[in-house]
Design brief:
Low-confidence stretches: 2-35
Shape: globular
Largest sheet: 2 strands, antiparallel
Oligomer: single chain
Mean pLDDT: 92
Strand content: 5-15%
Structural class: mainly alpha
Helix content: 40-55%
Number of helices: 18
Length: 494
């Protein structure tokens, strides 16, 4: 399932009409008229369910926006770009001056709800046709719904909640559900997925038992349900087929995709073109091109738009003997001096780039605008993240600092290339809490988790301009508030 969009059924248009969700234009509507397919005469065969599932997976690729903004919104990076008005919505979020009028936040709302709608479309008709393997396919759909709702609740807080298709008019009658209710559905979906999936996916890129266990543990962690989180993580760590990749650098090259550390990866490819008129249609990882080095000429990398530039403080947060330092962050001045490369500078140029997700040299098959079709997978959940989340749950829940140290130090030993205890953390209590938080920052630098880690642990003040009680969540897009016609209140202080 390297390309999610290769078989999207025309019938999926009926799932995309609510709350401003949309696909790639009027062509879908025209196709529906031609083929006369609707939900009531669909789902008559296994292939119908499979095609709809591919459509549900497809919206994962649009979550490139979530990943890059999770860094820009944090203290790890500055927005960058060409100028102070280049992608103004990102610039506003970087400066913590964003408002409900923000096209980029609306994209996240729209695209994640498109994913919810596509999964609800499948689940509403899950019992219409029986076939071998149906329970596993439904489990994948429920994993995906949980993934999309998890993104929505962490970005926007209380959100409209339905388990069937959204219909036009629901925006004026369906309330914003409390966060606890959204998480309850996420937990139920993921528990079903854990029970009905195996650790081996039928195709690369599809959800597994391990994907569901990890996301379930993460949902528990975000709610501070520490005992439940440790149970989910321990089961995955002890029973799953995952491990840390020995070579941290190779983890970020093509050879490192979908390997033993991959608990869930979002798949991208560069063999289909894309354009700015429909960024969510791209089969490539758009965030990579946006994070690339401006006007670059030289080995290994290629050019991009110089967004999402790490700060000097982020680079210096690593110890000098931490092997991750120059793998996570590219010091372009040092690289240019070493390799004879040349480059341009953009707005807020810091001299650093997010090396994990910047464009590499391309295949001969690359198509379309090469800034939009980069093939690098997004490592949405990897085993190191699971170990650190488990360490946090054990420590913060008072469930055992020894176990927390074990999981933390497993990550640190790879980071420093040692097999002994020379770099181990032996702290306990709140000192261990701080050490785990710092390790999450370093290990996951550039991967889109930092903003939400800071907010959920009460450290949002580390972000310049952050206002506690306001910026913990993002505003509901103004268009959605208007569509709701008084049914939804805006988030506090927006």
């Amino acid at each position: 399932m390297k390309k999610y969009i290769n078989k999207i059924t025309k019938a999926l248009v009926v799932a995309l009409v609510a709350f401003g969700t949309h696909s790639c234009g009027d062509a879908y509507l025209e196709d529906v008229q031609v083929y006369n397919i609707d939900s009531e005469n669909y789902f008559n065969s296994e292939s119908d369910y499979y095609d709809a599932l591919v459509g549900a997976y497809d919206l994962l690729q649009s979550s490139y926006a979530n990943a890059i903004l999770g860094e820009i919104a944090s203290d790890n990076t500055l927005c960058g770009g060409e100028s102070a008005t280049d992608v103004i919505g990102w610039q506003q979020i970087d400066d913590m001056v964003h408002t409900p009028v923000n096209d980029n936040l609306r994209d996240i709302w729209n695209w994640m709800y498109a994913g919810v709608s596509r999964t609800n479309f499948i689940l509403e008709f899950q019992d219409k046709t029986d076939f071998e393997g149906r329970a596993a396919l439904i489990a994948e759909a429920r994993f995906l719904r949980a993934y999309y709702y998890f993104e929505l609740v962490k970005w926007f807080g209380p959100v409209p909640l339905k388990e069937t298709r959204f219909q036009i008019g629901d925006e004026t009658s369906v309330p914003r559900a409390p966060v606890a209710d959204v998480y309850a559905l996420i937990e139920a979906d993921l528990s079903y997925a854990v029970s009905n999936l195996t650790y081996v996916a039928p195709q690369v890129g599809r959800a597994t038992k391990g994907s569901a266990q990890a996301l379930l543990g993460k949902a528990y962690l975000f709610q501070k349900k520490y005992a439940e989180a440790t149970a989910a993580f321990d089961n995955l760590i002890e029973m799953g087929p995952y491990d840390l990749v020995e070579d941290y650098e190779m983890l970020w090259e093509a050879e490192g995709e979908n390997g033993i550390e991959a608990v869930f990866e979002i798949q991208y490819t560069d063999i289909e073109g894309a354009g700015f008129e429909c960024l969510q249609c791209s089969e490539g990882n758009v965030a990579i091109g946006f994070s690339g080095i401006r006007n670059y000429t030289g080995p290994l990398f290629s050019s991009g738009f110089s967004f999402n530039v790490p700060t000097e403080e982020s680079y210096n947060a690593f110890d000098d003997d931490d092997l991750r330092k120059d793998i996570a962050i590219l010091d372009i001045e040092a690289w240019a001096a070493q390799e004879g490369a040349t480059f341009g500078t953009g707005y807020e140029h810091t001299g650093y780039f997010n090396r994990k997700y910047i464009p590499r040299k391309r295949s001969e098959q690359a198509a379309g605008d090469l800034n939009l079709t980069n093939p690098g997978n997004y490592r949405a959940i990897r085993f190191a993240d699971v170990l650190l989340m488990a360490a946090e749950a054990y420590n913060s829940g008072g469930l055992g600092d020894t176990k927390a140290q074990e999981y933390l130090n497993r990550v640190r030993r790879r980071a420093f290339g040692v097999d002994d205890a020379s770099k181990d953390i032996t702290d306990t209590g709140t000192n261990l809490t701080s050490a785990i938080a710092q390790e999450r920052r370093l290990e996951l630098m550039g991967e889109g988790h930092r903003f939400f880690d800071l907010v959920r642990t009460g450290d949002g003040s580390r972000i310049p301009g952050f206002v506690e009680g306001k910026h913990n969540v993002f505003p509901i897009p103004i268009e959605e508030i208007q569509f709701a016609n008084g049914n939804w209140e805006q988030n506090p202080n927006y």
